[in-house]
Amino acid sequence: MDLSGMRILVTGGGRGLGRRFVLDLLDAGARVGACDVDEAALDELAQLAGEGERGLWTTTCNVADEADVESLFRDFVAAHGGIDAVVNNAGITRDGLLVRKKADQLQKLSLEKWQSVIDVNLTGVFLCAREAVYHMIQMETPGVIVSISSISRHGNMGQTNYTASKAAVAAMTVVWSKELAPYGIRAVAIAPGYTSTEMTEAIREDVKAKIVSTIPAGRMADMGEISQALRFVLENDYVNGRVIEVDGGLRI
Ligand SMILES: NC(=O)c1ccc[n+]([C@@H]2O[C@H](COP(=O)([O-])OP(=O)(O)OC[C@H]3O[C@@H](n4cnc5c(N)ncnc54)[C@H](O)[C@@H]3O)[C@@H](O)[C@H]2O)c1
Q1: pTM of this prediction?
Q2: Bridge partners, residue 10, by sequence
Q3: Residue 223's domain spans which residues?
Q4: What is the CATH number of the domain that holds 135?
Q5: Average of per-residue pLDDT across 223-232
């Protein structure tokens, strides 16, 4: 697929990887929509992009909310005359051990922490993929569903909820590649390793140093390196039903 003029909606586009994806796709000539729960982040993004000139479209949306997601896609399609790709990027972490023993006290990973990650990272991807595909099939346009999984899908300590969501995203991608091929729609996942964004900023410095020491590349990924993988996946029509790993050689 040619990126120029391609109509692409990026979830969680306000900051971090999502923001980088949006700016790089605009540079490549795509018509890009960005949604986020964080309105201030979207305002900042619009300023960075120079909204009017480059045709960036932004709106607030909680990807875990069905009604919100339905109107997100309805509005994007109405504004652009269709949709060619969605990048399921919005994601959160709420880390914790399943059961933690500290000074003889046992602490459980709360249902709230479990559910909030599942709501955004799994239900959010399901809802956005479903709505994108609904419009693609209705308008008989081919397209691509790109979902951001993670190296953590292999089972990262302290991330029961996140690992479950990211493994599910990889699995759903395989299902969709089979179901949607008759409509000319591809589904691909990208699994970044540790990448320098606001999300990883939250990791304690000593923990971060320990993580980096395990990465064969000797550093975290730059956002541009993950964005390059997104571009490859969007452009190459033979990439389908796979998880593209961009992790500096790290194995979990
Ligand atoms: N940073 C990493 O090391 C890393 C590694 C592997 C995978 N990932 C994945 O890449 C994606 C982006 O990560 P990031 O590091 O840029 O995170 P980030 O926290 O910097 O940005 C995430 C963005 O998503 C938005 N968001 C959160 N909940 C939302 C919701 N319910 N609806 C809409 N928007 C919402 C946030 O407001 C934020 O703008 C996530 O799916 C993450 O799991 C990140």
Answers
A1: 0.97
A2: 34, 87
A3: 7-246
A4: 3.40.50.720
A5: 98
